[in-house]
C-alpha cells in the first residue's frame, strides 16, 4: 500500500511525523509564552523580549511546521488513498481545525505585540489545552485507523 510514492512512501511518512513534532512543539510553546507575557507590562523591556521570542518561534517553527505537515501529509494521503479511509477524512477535519487554532494563536501574539491583552489569563490557560487534545485525537486516528472499510 504505497501508491504513487512507491518506495519513497515511508520516507515521506517519516518526514511527515518529524514535521508534526516541530509544529506541535510550537503549538505547545507559543500559548505558554503568552501566559507568561501576561505578567509583563506592555512596552516594558520584558514585554519586548517576549514579543521577539513569539515572532521567532512563529517564523522558525510554527509556520514552516504547518506548511510541511500539510504538504507531506497530503502527499502521503493521496498516495495512501482516500477511499474507505474514514479515519483520514476525520483526521483532515481535525487538522483543519488545529490549523485554525494556529492562525488564531499567531493573530493573538500580534495583538500582544501591539500592546493589547485581548483575553483573561484563565481563558489563555484553558485554550492552552487545545493542541494537547487535538494531538491525542489525531494520533489515535492515524495509528489505530478507526472507521476503515
Ligand atoms: C492535513 C494534514 C495531514 C494529513 C493529510 C495526514 C495524512 C497522513 C497519512 C496519509 C499518513 C500515513 C498513514 C499510514 O501509512 O499508515 C499519516 C501518518 C501519520 N500522521 Fe498524519 N496527516 C496530517 C497531519 C497530521 C498531524 C497534525 C499529526 C499529529 C498531530 C499527524 C500524525 C501522524 C502520525 C503519528 C502518523 C504515523 C502513523 C503510523 O505510521 O502508524 N498527522 N498522516
TrEMBL record:
Q: Which PANTHER family match?
A: PROTOPORPHYRINOGEN IX OXIDASE, UPF0093 MEMBRANE PROTEIN SLR1790
InterPro entries in UniProt: HemJ-like (IPR005265)
> Tell me, what is an example of a GO biological process annotation in this record?
protoporphyrinogen IX biosynthetic process
Q: Where located? A: Cell membrane
The record describes its quaternary structure and partners as: Homodimer.
The UniProt record gives the binding positions of heme as: 16, 91
Reactions catalysed, semicolon-separated, are: protoporphyrinogen IX + 3 A = protoporphyrin IX + 3 AH2
The record, for Pfam families, names: UPF0093
Subcellular location, principal: membrane
Q: Which organism is it from?
A: Glacieibacterium frigidum
Domain of life assignment: Bacteria
**Does the keyword field hold Transmembrane?**
yes
Q: Which GO molecular function terms does the record list?
A: metal ion binding; protoporphyrinogen oxidase activity
Protein family per UniProt: Belongs to the HemJ family.
UniProt keyword terms in alphabetical order: Cell membrane, Heme, Iron, Membrane, Metal-binding, Oxidoreductase, Transmembrane, Transmembrane helix
Q: Which cofactor does it need?
A: heme b
Its protein name is Protoporphyrinogen IX oxidase
Q: Kindly state what the record says about how the cofactor is bound.
A: Binds 1 heme b (iron(II)-protoporphyrin IX) group per subunit.
Membrane-spanning parts: 14-39, 60-82, 88-106, 126-144
Pathway(s) it belongs to: Porphyrin-containing compound metabolism; protoporphyrin-IX biosynthesis; protoporphyrin-IX from protoporphyrinogen-IX: step 1/1
Q: Name one GO cellular component term.
A: plasma membrane
